Amino acid sequence: MKNCKIIHKGQRDQSSNHLYILKVNFKKLGLTRGKVMSLFKENEIGTQVHYIPVTSQPYFKNKGFNKNNLRNSYSYYEGALSIPLYYDLTYKQQTHVINQVKKIIG
Question: How high is the pLDDT of residue 90?
Fold first, then answer.
């Protein structure tokens, strides 16, 4: 895929498989994460963001934490998008999600 990569590719046996996270290059895609999430929602696919860096919370901001000191955390956060993954996901639903990922993210 040209605008994203699969984070756990080749490592699914080391995961509890409760999340399926794509690392999306929203800048290259020309869309915000919010817009991409809205497009998925329009196609009846729920998405989520994992994980918001704890230092972005007001308590930690007030303690003087600076996001420039945590570049890896924020880089991950800015591109991460979770798509549906759960045991009852049917083959038809999987195909729908895959097709929409290809259509929306490319």
Answer: 94
The domains of the chain are located at: 4-104
H-type alpha helices, the chain:
26-29, 33-42, 58-62, 71-79, 91-104
Long-range contacts of 48-55 (CB under 8 A, 24+ apart): 48/81, 48/82, 49/77, 49/80, 49/81, 49/82, 50/19, 50/21, 50/80, 50/82, 51/76, 51/77, 51/80, 52/77, 53/77
Which phi-psi region, left, alpha or beta, contains residue 64 (left: φ > 0; alpha: ψ -120 to 50)? Answer: left
Q: For residue 88, give the 3-state DSSP assignment.
A: coil
Question: pLDDT value at position 58?
Answer: 85
**Cβ(79)–Cβ(24) below 8 Å:** yes
To the question of domain 4-104 being in CATH 3.40.50.1220, the answer is no
Nearest to 81 by CA among 15, 30, 34: 34
pLDDT at 57 over 90: no
